[in-house]
Amino acid sequence: MKINKVLMLTALFFTSYANGQTSKQDLAFAKLPVPKANEKVATFAGGCFWSLSEGLSELNGVSKVVAGYAGGTVKSPTYEAVSSDNTGHAESVQVYYDPKVISYASLAEAFFYAHDPTTLNKQGPDEGKDYRSIAFYRTPEEENILKAAILRVNASHHYRNPIVTELLPFKVIYAAENYHQGYYKSHPGSSYIKNVSVPKVMKLREHMNAYLKPAFKR
Fold first, then answer.
1. Which strand ranges, in their side-by-side order, compose the sheet holding 166-169?
2. CB-CB neighbours of 37 under 10 Å
3. Residues with catalytic roles
4. Which of 106, 93, 111, 97 is nearest to 35 (CA)?
5. pLDDT digits (tens, 9 = 90+) for 12-51
6. Contact in structure between 131 and 2 (CB atoms under 8 Å)
7. Predicted TM-score of the model (pTM)
8. How far apart, in whole angstroms, are the C-alpha atoms of residue 157 and residue 149?
9. Measuring CA to CA, how many Å separate 197 from each of 1, 46, 90, 151?
């Protein structure tokens, strides 16, 4: 299915170019904003970044989520390179949030409900290390929060199998191409979005309803 996703994007952009709807700007890399004075950042990888970006952006206190690539060794990788599964990177997101509104612990909880953290190198139809589950920490406190969250979710038996999410110290994230940013909202008719991404976002909304921005609350 992973190769089908790549082929889907290739076909989409070939058609868009032919119709004059896609520009070089779409294929250029996005920029990582500098956090505001009142903001912190958190970085996660949980399968396709389209749904994870949307789900976490719906949380109150989150100002921006940037799709990117993290966890590997290749500098400034392209989507095609990451999809080859040879860069060590996983599709990831960087979350900009106000810790006075939402805590890192709440973001971690949302992350573990926003995807299936029990499948190794696999998320639904997408397979490969570029789809693996990773929670990146920047401080010992964040590492402890993640470990506690894993213990809590495992103890709840929400998932049939134990969590296999990697916990890694944050090093760097490279912003993905512009066309990946906000892809969930800009391509609501995509079969992948409807069949794979939407169920993930709905799952996060269900479990994190109290933390959602008013527009997304049930």
1. 166-169, 133-137, 40-46, 90-97, 62-70, 173-175
2. 5
3. 48
4. 97
5. 554 444 444 556 788 899 999 999 999 999 999 999 999 9
6. yes
7. 0.91
8. 13
9. 14, 12, 17, 26
Reduce the secondary structure of the chain to three states and give it as a string. Answer: CHHHHHHHHHHHHHHHHHCCCCCHHHHCECCCCCCCCCCEEEEEEECCHHHHHHHHHCECCEEEEEEEEECCCCCCCCHHHHHCCCCCCEEEEEEEECCCCCCHHHHHHHHHHHCCCCCCCEECCEECHHHCEEEEECCHHHHHHHHHHHHHHHHHCCCCCCCCCEEEECCCEEECEHHHCCHHHHCCCCHHHHHHHHHHHHHHHHHCHHHECHHHCC
> Stretch 188-199: mean pLDDT, rounded?
94
Per-residue pLDDT reduced to its tens digit, 76-110: 999 999 999 999 999 999 999 999 999 999 999 99
Length of the chain in terms of residues written: 218
The three-state DSSP-derived secondary structure of 4-37 is HHHHHHHHHHHHHHHCCCCCHHHHCECCCCCCCC
Q: In whole angstroms, how far apart are CA 41 and each of 8, 21, 139?
A: 31, 33, 12
Backbone angles phi, psi at 90, to 5 degrees: -120, 150
With contact defined as beta carbons under 8 Å apart, do 91 and 44 qualify? no
* Six-digit token string for 128: 């490969």
Residue found under tokens 């810790």: 99
Q: Which CATH superfamily is domain 38-203 in?
A: Peptide methionine sulphoxide reductase MsrA (3.30.1060.10)
